[in-house]
C-alpha cells in the first residue's frame, strides 16, 4: 500500500497545486475543489485528455475496470472518492457504508489514476449539516424504481454529479452499467445542462457465480450471498422468457418468481423497461433498447441488478 507523503516538492516535479497532498509515484491526492479543478485544468492546458471516475469508495474490481478503461482512453485519469450524504435517506445506511480510503487509494494508483479527489463533506456542502439550498432533480427518470423506494436519492445523485463534473471540466466520465438508473440519469443531466462531458457506460463486472460486484456485498453472510444470486438468475430467466416471445407481464412474472422463491430475499421490483427513459416497455417488437431491472432486500442489504436482455440472448 502506498504511503501519503507530506506536502513538498518532489525531485524533478513542480510543487503541488494548493489543496493537494503529494504521494509516491504519479498520484496526487486532492482535498479541495480548487486543487482538483486546478490539476485538471493544467492537464488540459498541456494538451492532455481527462477521464473521470466518480466513486463513493469501498472500491472493488468493478471500480478498477472503470479506472483501467479511463486510463486506456485518456491521458490523465481522476477518481473522486466521496460518500455523498445527500443520496442516503437512511442515516443508518449512511453510517454503515464502508470507508476504506487507504485501500481505495492503493487500488486506483495501481490501476493508472493520476489524481484522486477526496473531499470532506464540508468541502462539497459548505453549510453541512444543513442541506444545500440548491439541488438538481430529474423527476422523469428519478421517480420510478429506485426513486420510489429511496425518496430523494436521485436528487442527491444528480446534485453531486453536477458539482463533480462542473469542477472537473471537459472530460470523459465513466460510470458502471450496474447502477443503470443512475447512468441514465447522469446522461440526461449532462445533456440537459450542456455539461462538457462525454458520459461512458461500462459493463457490469460480476463474480464467477454471477453476482454483480457491489460494495454492499461485503455485508452479506455466506447464506445471504447465496440468496443474492437470485437476482442474476431472475434476469437470465426474464431474458429467456423475452427470447421466447413472451409479453412484458410474463417476463416480469418470471423474474419475480425466481427472487420470491428465495426465503431470504424480499423482492422490491422486477421490471422490463425502455433503456432510454426507464418507462415500462410497451412495444417489444421494435428495435428500441430494453433493460431488465431487479431489486431486492437480502438480509440487511438492498441489492440491485440489471441486464440487456437482447445482448444476453
Summarize, please.
The chain is of the alpha/beta class. It is 38% helix and 19% strand. The N terminus is likely disordered.
Q: How big a fraction of the residues is strand?
A: 15-25%
Walk across the major sheet and give the strand order.
1-2-5-4-3-6-7
N/C terminus separation = 42 Å
CATH architecture of the largest domain: 3-Layer(aba) Sandwich
Element-by-element helix/strand order: EEHEHEHHEHHHHEHEHHEEE
Which class do the helix and strand fractions yield?
A: alpha/beta
> Main beta sheet, described?
7 strands, mixed
How many distinct domains? 2
Count of DSSP H/I helices:
11
The CATH H-level homologous superfamily of the largest domain: HUPs
Shape descriptor: globular
Please give a structural write-up.
- Helix content is 38%, strand content 19%.
- The chain has 313 residues and is of the alpha/beta class.
- Helix 8 (153-168) packs across helix 9 (180-192) and helix 10 (222-243) packs antiparallel against helix 11 (248-260).
- Helix 9 links the parallel strand 6 and strand 7 (197-202).
- The longest helix has 22 residues, at 222-243.
- The protein contains eleven helices and ten strands.
- It has helices at 33-45, 61-73, 91-96, 101-111, 121-124, 139-142, 146-149, 153-168, 180-192, 222-243, 248-260, and strands at 20-22, 28-30, 50-55, 76-81, 115-117, 171-176, 197-202, 265-274, 290-298, 301-307.
- It has two domains: 20-202, 3-Layer(aba) Sandwich (Rossmann fold); 215-307, Pantoate--beta-alanine Ligase, Chain: A,domain 2.
- A seven-stranded mixed sheet has the order 1-2-5-4-3-6-7, with helices on both faces. A three-stranded antiparallel sheet has the order 8-9-10, with helices on one face.
Amino acid at each position: 500500500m502506498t504511503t501519503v507523503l507530506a506536502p513538498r516538492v518532489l525531485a524533478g516535479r513542480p510543487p503541488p497545486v494548493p489543496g493537494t497532498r503529494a504521494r509516491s509515484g504519479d498520484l496526487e491526492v486532492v482535498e479541495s475543489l480548487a486543487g482538483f479543478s486546478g490539476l485538471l485544468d493544467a492537464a488540459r492546458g498541456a494538451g492532455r485528455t481527462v477521464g473521470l471516475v466518480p466513486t463513493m469508495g469501498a472500491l472493488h474490481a468493478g471500480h478498477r475496470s472503470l479506472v483501467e478503461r479511463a486510463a486506456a482512453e485518456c491521458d490523465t485519469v481522476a477518481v473522486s472518492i466521496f460518500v455523498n450524504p445527500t443520496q442516503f435517506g437512511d442515516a443508518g445506511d449512511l453510517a454503515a457504508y464502508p470507508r476504506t480510503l487507504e485501500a481505495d487509494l492503493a487500488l486506483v494508483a495501481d490501476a493508472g489514476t493520476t489524481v484522486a479527489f477526496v473531499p470532506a463533506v464540508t468541502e462539497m456542502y459548505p453549510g453541512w449539516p444543513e442541506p444545500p439550498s440548491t439541488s438538481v432533480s430529474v423527476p422523469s427518470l428519478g421517480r420510478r424504481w429506485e426513486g420510489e423506494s429511496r425518496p430523494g436519492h436521485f436528487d442527491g445523485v444528480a446534485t453531486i454529479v453536477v458539482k463533480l463534473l462542473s469542477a472537473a471540466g471537459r472530460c470523459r466520465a465513466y460510470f458502471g452499467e450496474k447502477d443503470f438508473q443512475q447512468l441514465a440519469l447522469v446522461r440526461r443531466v449532462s445533456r440537459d445542462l450542456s455539461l462538457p462531458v462525454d458520459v461512458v457506460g461500462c459493463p457490469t463486472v460480476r463474480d464467477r457465480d454471477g453476482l454483480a460486484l457491489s460494495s454492499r456485498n461485503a455485508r452479506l453472510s455466506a447464506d445471504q450471498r447465496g440468496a443474492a444470486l437470485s437476482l442474476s438468475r431472475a434476469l437470465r430467466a426474464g431474458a429467456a422468457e423475452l427470447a421466447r416471445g413472451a409479453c412484458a407481464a410474463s417476463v416480469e412474472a418470471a423474474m419475480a418468481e425466481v427472487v420470491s422463491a428465495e426465503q431470504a430475499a424480499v423482492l422490491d421490483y422486477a421490471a422490463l423497461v425502455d433503456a432510454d427513459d426507464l418507462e415500462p416497455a410497451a412495444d417489444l417488437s421494435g428495435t428500441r433498447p430494453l433493460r431488465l431491472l431487479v431489486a431486492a432486500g437480502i438480509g440487511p442489504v438492498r441489492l440491485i441488478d440489471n441486464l440487456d436482455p437482447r445482448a444476453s440472448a
